[in-house]
Design a protein that fits this description.
six-stranded parallel beta sheet, alpha/beta, 7 helices, globular, Rossmann fold
Length: 179
């Protein structure tokens, strides 16, 4: 089973994966080699955090030179190589940026075709835009494809945005273009 975890920056994607991995390790006698995480998100911190917390975890970085072109990350080849190297592999988490998630999912469905689940972690701004029905088209499409939607509200900025007045003048983003 593959689980795509997507959402905007600071929405709790890595936290969600860590929580799931902790549960897996607590209930499994042989977690090493059975769970993999593929990261298409930028930043060393995620990989270092996962490696330190779970030494037997299969961890791969997907090089994503452009968020508009996720096929350049070569997800199908990375998945096949991970599976071939680890025949006991049972669960794969793929953390992808929100803007590239649709294309990653399209490529996965067309080329790989394994069973999958989509977890979408919403930031406070996304959650508010959703409530106000002001999502951008790619956001709405990703929400429609999500099997699970999680709103993480653990940081002060998220709390402030979620409590803000919901009038149109306080929308989370401005859709007007400069002249």
């Amino acid at each position: 089973m593959c689980t795509f975890v997507s959402g905007p920056r600071d929405s709790g994607k890595t936290r969600h994966i860590l929580e799931h991995l902790r549960r897996t390790v607590a209930t499994s006698h042989t977690p090493e080699g059975t769970v993999a995480v593929l990261l298409a998100e930028a930043g060393r911190t995620r990989a270092e955090t996962l490696s330190a917390a779970f030494p037997g975890l299969i961890l791969r970085r997907l090089f994503l030179p452009c968020q508009c072109c996720p096929e350049l990350a070569r997800l199908p080849a990375a998945l096949r190589a991970t599976k071939d190297a680890n025949p006991r592999l049972e669960q794969v988490f793929i953390e992808v940026p929100d803007i590239a998630a649709q294309r990653f999912l399209d490529e996965f469905d067309a080329v790989v075709g394994w069973p999958r689940n989509v977890v979408l972690c919403l930031s406070a701004a996304w959650a508010k835009a959703r409530r106000l029905d002001m999502l951008l088209p790619f956001q709405s499409a990703l929400i429609e494809r999500a099997d699970t939607i999680i709103e993480h509200e653990n940081n002060p900025l998220a709390q402030q945005l979620l409590r803000a007045d919901n009038s149109p003048t306080t929308a989370p983003f401005d859709l007007t273009l400069p002249r």
